[in-house]
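Run log // design_07
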């Protein structure tokens, strides 16, 4: 059985839209020469599961907050399945859940309307966002002078880029692979997120299925090197 739609990597070929005219009422503060006071940037930090993305996201939020900056933390489908960012080493922070209908620009505008400054966004699990959300991040940087730090997986269980991750690679000012290495059982660097169902690596199916939950107890994910992802060998302890 093959699933052509699921097996074909997506190609967005999507031009970047211009600014949303309805949201220009809260343009960034500018100096006397008209230039932005701060050179905001969109940065994407990526890596496989377990490499510490959420930990780094929360550390970055802490570092900025300590310098007196105000930020918002967003997430989608956190492992806690609640509106918060949690890390495997035990950190947690409340977060705004990114839904299909959420507009990140409106989120910032609403905060400003309440008199709460937003200097930056921390967007965890960004590979699960929509492509439109990534474009909103770019607009927040360019037109609103808000820094955006996105964290997420690059590829899905089929080894194909998530659409939002692809858009981040296309649009981000800076892209960095997180340098905390996750090792395959063989000791090589882990690169790919294998979906394991019934003890076997599967390569077809829905792009997003949350593992380790009550509803999907039979689905789990394991980080493998490319060699063992290809062979489907989960190691001696699998
Ligand atoms: Zn391996």
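design_07 sequence
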């Amino acid at each position: 059985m093959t699933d052509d739609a699921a097996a074909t990597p997506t190609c967005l070929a999507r031009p970047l839209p211009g600014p949303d005219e309805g949201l220009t009422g809260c343009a960034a503060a500018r100096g006397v020469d008209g230039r932005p006071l701060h050179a905001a940037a969109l940065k994407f930090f990526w890596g496989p599961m377990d490499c510490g993305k959420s930990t780094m996201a929360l550390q970055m939020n802490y570092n900025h907050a300590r310098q007196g900056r105000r930020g918002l933390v967003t997430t989608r489908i956190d492992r806690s399945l609640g509106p918060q960012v949690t890390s495997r080493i035990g950190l947690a922070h409340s977060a705004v859940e990114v839904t299909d209908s959420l507009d990140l620009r409106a989120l910032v505008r609403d905060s400003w309307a309440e008199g709460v400054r937003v200097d930056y966004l921390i967007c965890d699990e960004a590979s699960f966002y929509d492509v439109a959300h990534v474009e909103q991040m770019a607009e927040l940087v360019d037109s609103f002078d808000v820094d955006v730090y996105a964290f997420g997986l690059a590829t899905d269980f089929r080894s194909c880029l998530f659409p939002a991750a692809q858009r981040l690679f296309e649009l981000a000012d800076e892209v960095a692979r997180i340098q905390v290495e996750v090792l395959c059982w063989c000791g090589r660097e882990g690169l790919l997120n294998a979906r394991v169902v019934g003890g076997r690596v599967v390569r077809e199916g829905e792009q997003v299925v949350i593992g380790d939950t009550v509803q999907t107890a039979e689905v789990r994910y394991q980080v493998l090197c490319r060699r063992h992802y290809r062979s489907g060998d989960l190691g001696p302890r699998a």
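Residues 1-6 have pLDDT under 50 and may be disordered.
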